Each structure stands twice: as C-alpha cells, then as structure tokens.
C-alpha cells in the first residue's frame, strides 16, 4: 500500500471550527488500526470548499468526502484508506469553477527563465503562425475565437487588428497597454510578473498579423518588478532570436521595447498613451482618426491589453473554435478578476464568462470576511458601478454588466458589506477621477469637481434635497460631453449608487444619518451611563484623550476633541 | 547564444521534459514579496544547503491565492504536491525538516484549493 495522506478541514463557520476534534478522532483510529507508518492525517488551513461540513480528502487517490460525521470515520479508514474503495454516498463533486487560460503559467513556471516557458509549449504558437499561417488567417482565427479586448471596453480584437492591417503604411506599431490603474486591480501586473513571455509572444503574433515590426510595452513605473521581468524576458528572447531580425529564419522581423508611464490614470486611454510614448504630455485627443489609422508617430497602431495578448497563443495553438466554446453567446473565453474587499479569499481568479457573481464570491472567494452580509459588488473600477446583492445571480459578461449600470472593466471586483457606505464609495471613486482628470476638456474637469463638492456636502450632513437631481444632471453632461472615456465614465459610480441606493443618499440628506457609520460628520459618540461599568479602559485607550471623568461621577466624551475613530463601538 | 531554428523549441522542450523528482516553488510576485516570500525563499535555500538536501528551489509567479501569501508549493517523491500558505521563516524550516526530509506534511498550513486546472 502506498503512503496515504488524509486532509481534514471543517468548512462550516470559522467560529465553531471542529477540525481539531475530528483530527484527534482520526489520529486515534489510525493508531488503533496500526496504520501510523503508512497514513498521515493533516489538518489544512483551507480546502477550497465552503459550508459543506467536515471535508475529508484522501490523497493520492484524490477522493473528497463532504459532511463527514464522526460515525463515518471508521468506514473511511476501513474502506477508502485501507482498500482504496470509494464510499459513493459521501463523495463530494464540485464542478471546477475556475479555468486558467491567461494564468495558465502563473505560479507554475519560473518567469525569469525562458526555457521554462518553452517547456510548456512557449513560442510554439509564434512558430506556427510564421510558417503555417498567413496574417489574414491569424485574424480569421481571432474572429472565430470571439476574443474581445480585456482592457474594459470589449472591442473585438480581430476587428482592431484587421482595421490596422488594412491601412497601407511603411511602418506600423503594436502596443501592449500595461498601464493598469484601477484601484484594487492587479491582474496585468501578475501576468507580467508571472508569465512575461506569453505576453511577448502574443505581441509578436499580433505584430505579424497587422504587419508591424516594432512593439512597445507601455508599463507604469509603479510596477518595478514587472518591468524588471519584462526586461529580462525581452533580453532572453533576443538572445534566442525569438525577437529581432529573421525570427526562426522565417524572414519576419519583430522587436519590442519598454516605455514607462509615470502613473497617470488617463494614460491608459489609447490616444493619451500614444502621446505619452511620443514624449508629449499624456492627454487624450478626439477620435477619429483612430489609432488604427493614425496612431503612434502618425502610423497605424494597434493597442491591446496585457490580458488580451496573453490569450493569443492558446487560441492559435488550440484553435479559435475551442476558445469560442467557452463563455456566453457574445462574450467568449475567460476573464481574470482581482477579487478584493470584504471577501475571505482575496486574490486572482480566472473564470469562464457566464459564471454568476454569487459563484465567484461564495464558491471561489469563500464567502464574506465578516458576519456582516454582502451589500454590493463594485466592478470596473472608477469607470464602473456597483451591483447590489439582488443581482448576484447575474451571469458575468460584457452585456449583462452594462445592463446593470456597471462595466466589465479591466477586472477589478470589490466586494462590499453592510459597513460600506454607498455615498462614501461614490465619493472615493469620483475623487480618484477628479485627481486623475487631465484637465483638457471642461465637462470632466469642472463637472467632476462640482459633483465631488456636492457629494462631500452630502456626506458632511450639509446636503439639500435637490442635490440628488443635481448629481444626475451633471453626470449626464459629463457622460455626453467629455472627450475621453475617463470623463465619460467618471460619473458611473455615482449614477449606479444613486440608482440602487437612493434611499441611502436621502438618509444622509434628510435624516442626516449614515447607516453604515462611515461618514464621521454624521456620527457622534456618547457613553450610556446606566450601562457604564466605570472600568476606565476607554479612557486609557482613547487616542486623542477625549474621554475624562472619574469612577464616582462617571465618564464623558468631549465632543470637540473626539476623533470618531469608533475604536470602542 | 546562437539563434534558435524552428526545430530547437522541441529540443529545449524535450530536455525539460524530465522534471526533477523533488522541487519547491516559491511565489515571488509583488503580492508574495510584499508578504515576505523573499525571506522564505532565502530561508529555504539556506536550510537546504545546511542540511545538504537535494532539492530544486525555484521562484514562480502569482498562484492567485493572494490572501494566503507567501505560498510555497512542494513536491517530493512519494507524496502528492501541496501548496503551503501563510509561510514564514519558521514554517519554511519545518517544511524542509518534516515534509522534505521526513515525508510528513506540515499541518495547519496547507491551502488545498483546487483552483489549478
């Protein structure tokens, strides 16, 4: 008999974790059976299954039992561990929720070693297109795949490439947009840090398809490790002749350079990005002409997001039809989300399109961090909106999220609970866009500022009933009249919170109350004298010495000193 | 280094096909390093040298389980591969001592998330 490992975890609420008791029972039974030498019982920290009672996983057989009771322990050891027999009624089968295409190599290979990448079929797709495909065939394959830009807007990748290819020019460019700036989103950074060669390969294939011989990485300078790894990867690829002149002896020339962005959010917008690479101030310009006609240095240019490019080589190797078989009717393939906020397992998840928000948060994310219930999910960063808990069962794709007043965006997904105030959230995102507005066009520069003033007023208890209409009016003007997507979408968080949580706004304006206790101007703390035990703990711990008094007379908080930190609530 | 011809990819792939029997991978993306994976990596390398353990210790990217960083994935002969999360220097030493040397998994630190497909 091989050595067996029994993994144990109680997946009911963390408060009554009984893993320890079950562990003791298992260890005792293993010892009684005289199996100590061949069986190890291991308590694990997390087993990836939630709210299914005690989970027992027997390795290397990979049998998973859920809702195991104490009475089951005997037969699990007797049958499964000793003779490898599976007890059918206990078996737990969870369909795989995650699907890794973009993140296929992240955490698997050494990103600083090109041989590691080649060992997992790296650069095979590039070789395939150079020797077997015409550029039109590459575009055809992309069309079949249905891949849409992962930067946020969801423009079909094949169309972008075709438009750029169809323009006649002596020089064309392909740019990888790695200027990821949404608060809470870091998908692109992880791909660049974990698997830089896949993006370089995607860039080279895109270059071949549109007829570009030069590519650029536009990476923000705040990602030093990503930059370092791309630099190393480019150097290794050049050494192997996978970049440079006459790649694989096919006659195709392609090279890549890095341009660093100084961290302006607006430079993620393609015309601003081009201006920044050219050495000018990063401000957008009106389109048309689109970059596919007049882009970098007035030459036709295609700009693709990191995640889009990381999808290219699997599509070439496995075929567009394979990719199109994943996802929903109009949104194909998978999407990487940076799941953050009040969720237990924060991190990167890659899921097929069409999965519901509930599955992402509760099955993959492991549920909420605290006992407070889920209130909403924010997607799409400052250009997106909030989706209230009533819509948790919506399948995630470009169209559905848009219908709900949010967007797919680059993939930030922030889970919020009852402690999060929607006015505060709207204020935060709008404040971000006001900071990052380049100031070129009036609707964005002035509109954003005015909306922020109104929001601040509301959160400070100075709001008037006409404020919500005012917000809606300015938002509409910004959406209709701003020059670029930053201004057009900056009001989205306000619009969507107003749409779903208007009564919360009214609470702030009319009742001067913040039900989430976030807006400190609307709060005041006091001591209930009848309940006070006179322990003086609050006096000792108050960071601003606002509490005074003595044991006889009782204690009181000086309101003018109180910083409303909420430390003792 | 000479340039690769189109056949060379296969050669490199073949030479890499034989995976070492024992390996450790440490997640060294920004999320991992921020949580202290460089300390863990150095501790593993140092301990392995001290104990004369024959094991390949590699860096890798982000596994996606950022809440549990630093992550250390271990595969040794005769045991299934497992991922340890929230590893610090002490746990790293225990991983080498118990798991790698004695073939006993370290309890309470395994994050068995079946996210890898």
Question: What's this model, at a glance?
Answer:
The complex is a heterodimer of chains A (569) and B (117). Helices cover 38% and strands 15% of the residues of chain A.
Description:
- The complex is a heterodimer of chains A (569) and B (117).
- By secondary structure, chain A is an alpha/beta fold.
- Chain A has five domains: 4-90, Glutaredoxin, CATH 3.40.30; 114-324, 3-Layer(aba) Sandwich (Rossmann fold), CATH 3.40.50; 334-417, Ubiquitin-like (UB roll), CATH 3.10.20.600; 422-511, NADH-ubiquinone oxidoreductase 51kDa subunit, iron-sulphur binding domain (de novo design (two linked rop proteins)); 524-569, Alpha-Beta Plaits, CATH 3.30.70.
- Helix content of chain A is 38%, strand content 15%.
- Chain A has helices at residues 19-32, 73-83, 114-119, 124-132, 135-145, 157-166, 187-194, 196-210, 224-239, 270-277, 306-318, 320-324, 357-364, 398-403, 422-436, 442-459, 467-481, 485-490, 492-511, 537-541, and strands spanning 4-10, 39-43, 54-59, 63-65, 173-178, 214-220, 255-261, 301-305, 334-341, 347-352, 374-379, 385-388, 412-417, 547-550, 554-557.
- In chain A, the strands form four sheets. Chain A has a five-stranded mixed β-sheet with strand order 10-9-13-11-12. Chain A has a four-stranded mixed β-sheet with strand order 2-1-3-4, covered by helices on one side.
- Chain A is flat and about 90 Å long.
- The N and C termini of chain A lie far apart (57 Å).
- The model of chain A has no long low-confidence stretch (mean pLDDT 90).
- Chain B is of the alpha+beta class and 117 residues long.
- Chain B has a single domain (19-101), classed as Glutaredoxin.
- In chain B, 38% of the residues lie in helices and 15% in strands.
- Chain B has four helices and four strands.
- Chain B has helices at 8-17, 30-35, 37-51, 89-101, and strands at residues 23-27, 56-60, 72-75, 82-84.
- Chain B has a four-stranded mixed β-sheet.
- In chain B, a hairpin with a 6-residue loop joins strand 3 and strand 4.
- In chain B, helix 3 (37-51) crosses helix 4 (89-101).
- The longest helix of chain B is centred in the middle third of the chain and has 15 residues, at 37-51.
- At the A-B interface, strand 1, strand 2, helix 3, helix 4 and helix 7 of A face helix 1, helix 2 and strand 2 of B.
């Amino acid at each position: 008999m091989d050595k067996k490992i029994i993994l144990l975890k109680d997946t009911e609420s963390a408060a009554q974790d009984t893993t320890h008791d079950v562990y003791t029972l298992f260890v005792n039974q293993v010892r009684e059976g005289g199996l100590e030498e061949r069986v190890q019982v291991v308590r694990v920290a997390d087993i990836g299954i939630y709210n299914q009672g005690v989970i027992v996983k027997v390795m290397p057989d990979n049998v998973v039992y859920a809702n195991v009771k104490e009475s089951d322990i005997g037969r699990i050891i007797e049958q499964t561990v000793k003779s490898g027999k599976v007890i059918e009624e206990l078996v737990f089968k969870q369909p795989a929720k995650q699907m890794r295409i973009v993140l296929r190599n992240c955490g698997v290979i050494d990103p600083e070693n090109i041989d590691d990448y080649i060992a997992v079929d790296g650069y095979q797709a590039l070789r395939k297109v150079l020797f077997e495909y015409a550029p039109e065939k590459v575009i055809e394959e992309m069309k079949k795949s249905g891949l849409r830009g992962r930067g946020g807007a969801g423009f079909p990748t094949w169309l972008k490439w075709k438009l750029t290819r169809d323009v006649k020019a002596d020089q064309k460019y392909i740019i990888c947009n790695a200027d990821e700036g949404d608060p809470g989103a870091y998908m692109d950074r992880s791909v660049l840090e974990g698997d830089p060669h896949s993006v370089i390969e995607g860039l080279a294939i895109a270059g071949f398809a549109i007829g570009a011989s030069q590519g650029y990485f536009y990476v923000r300078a705040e990602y030093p490790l990503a930059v370092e790894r791309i630099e190393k990867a480019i150097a290794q690829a050049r050494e192997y002749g996978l970049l440079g002149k006459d790649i694989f002896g096919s006659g195709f020339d392609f090279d890549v350079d890095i341009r660093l962005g100084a961290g302006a959010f607006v430079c993620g917008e393609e015309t601003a990005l081009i201006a920044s690479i050219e050495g000018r101030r990063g401000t957008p310009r009106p389109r048309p002409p689109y970059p596919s006609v007049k882009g970098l240095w007035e030459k036709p240019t295609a700009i693709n997001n990191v995640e889009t490019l990381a999808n290219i080589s699997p599509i070439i190797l496995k075929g567009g039809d394979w990719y199109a078989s994943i996802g929903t009717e109009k949104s194909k393939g998978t999407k990487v989300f940076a799941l953050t906020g009040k969720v237990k397992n924060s991190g990167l998840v890659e899921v097929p399109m069409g999965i519901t928000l509930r599955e992402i948060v509760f099955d993959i994310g492991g549920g909420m961090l605290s006992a407070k219930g889920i209130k909403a999910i924010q997607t799409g960063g400052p250009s997106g909106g909030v989706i209230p808990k009533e819509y948790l069962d919506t399948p995630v794709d470009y169209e559905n999220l848009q219908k709900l007043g949010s967007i797919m965006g680059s993939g930030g997904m922030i889970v919020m609970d009852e402690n999060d105030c929607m006015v505060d959230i709207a204020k935060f995102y709008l404040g971000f866009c006001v900071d990052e507005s380049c100031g070129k066009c009036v609707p964005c520069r002035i509109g954003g500022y005015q909306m922020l003033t109104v929001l601040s007023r509301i959160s400070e208890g100075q709001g008037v009933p006409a404020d919500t209409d005012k917000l809606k009016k300015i938002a509409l003007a910004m959406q209709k009249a701003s020059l670029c997507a930053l201004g057009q979408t900056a009001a989205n968080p306000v619009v969507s919170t107003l749409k779903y949580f208007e009564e919360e706004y009214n609470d702030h304006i009319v009742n001067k109350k913040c039900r989430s206790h976030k807006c400190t101007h609307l709060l005041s703390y006091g001591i209930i004298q009848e309940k006070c035990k006179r322990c003086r703990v609050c006096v000792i711990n108050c960071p601003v010495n606002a509490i005074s008094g003595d044991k006889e007379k009782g204690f009181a908080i000086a309101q003018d000193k109180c910083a409303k930190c909420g430390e003792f609530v | 280094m000479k340039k690769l011809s189109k056949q060379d990819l296969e050669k490199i792939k073949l030479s890499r096909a034989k995976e070492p029997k024992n390996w450790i991978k440490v997640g060294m993306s920004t999320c991992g390093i921020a949580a202290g994976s460089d300390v863990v990596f150095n501790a593993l390398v140092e301990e392995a040298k001290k104990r004369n353990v024959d094991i390949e210790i590699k860096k890798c990217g982000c596994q996606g389980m950022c809440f549990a960083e630093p992550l250390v994935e271990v595969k040794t002969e005769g045991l299934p591969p497992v991922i340890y999360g929230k590893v610090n220097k002490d746990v790293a030493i225990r991983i080498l001592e118990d798991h790698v040397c004695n073939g006993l998994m370290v309890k309470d630190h395994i994050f068995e998330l079946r996210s890898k497909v």
